[in-house]
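Exercise 3.2. Students should predict the tertiary structure of the chain below and write it as structure tokens, then compare their answer with the key that follows.

Predict this chain's 3D structure.
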Amino acid sequence: MKPIVRLFAIGAVLAVCALPPRALAQPAAGCPQASHFVDVAKGSAGARYAKPELQVSCTGDHVVVQSNGIPNFEFVAITPNPLQAQRYNWRIPRTPKPSSNPQQVPLLGPTAVMVNGLPLFGPNEAPEHGTADPYLDKLLDFCGGHTGPGGMYHFHVMPVCLFDKVEGRTSLVVGYAFDGYPILAPSECVDASCTGVRKVRSSWRRENSQRNVWTANKYVEGHGDLDRCNGMTRPDGSYAYYATDTFPYGPACYRGVALLNQPGMAGGGGPGGPKGDKGPKGPPPGSGAPGGPR
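Answer key:
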């Protein structure tokens, strides 16, 4: 079944013909992160593709996310790359450990895993195509993603089609960064008792019209609600990233110690064809140099 809408707006209230939000049927005991992932079993990318598969469990110090990389919603080809099954075995810290030196997210390949077991990439395309913004360049499908070389489907923004309602929902986990901190939809309680709800905003501001997103955008403390990494300490004292309407759309750097040396993280590529989304290896946050967060 085709979705009712093909265009999407991050953070908007949407009703599409995609799998409604459903927690995994039997999350592992002592593994609360598992309850935030959706049951993909009844979803489908289309008759041509394998059924989506997802298992989430906890072992030792890690949350283990195993996925075949097939979307649980209709696959709509946006790039020349045909969708192919993957063999993901992501490991995420069960208990995030704050880092004294936040590390930028990879500008090539996965930066986080979303609640349907598919990866999130950074907010940029390939350097040979200007390190530009795939959202602004309209390279994303109705759910916020597309396929790269090797058939890897991945998101660049919040996968809006996984949820029946986004606006106003607090504590809605849309993914987990590889340092273990959750990525939330951009609505938050104003205090610990949640006497009100507000929409949080990125503190990155577009400064010029350059195509390179890391030189076109600058972090301005106080411009929005969030820190340089696109997160903040919540009213309950916990830390989380947010999937914001504007750049960088998700984590820009890791506030915790991230597990990055995992299979598939060093590559993944981009859309291929006339435009791509491979990212260069950039400098650490705060350097101000092109190619990475400033």
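Discussion points: The first strand starts at residue 54 and ends at 59. Residues 1-27, 267-294 have pLDDT under 50 and may be disordered.
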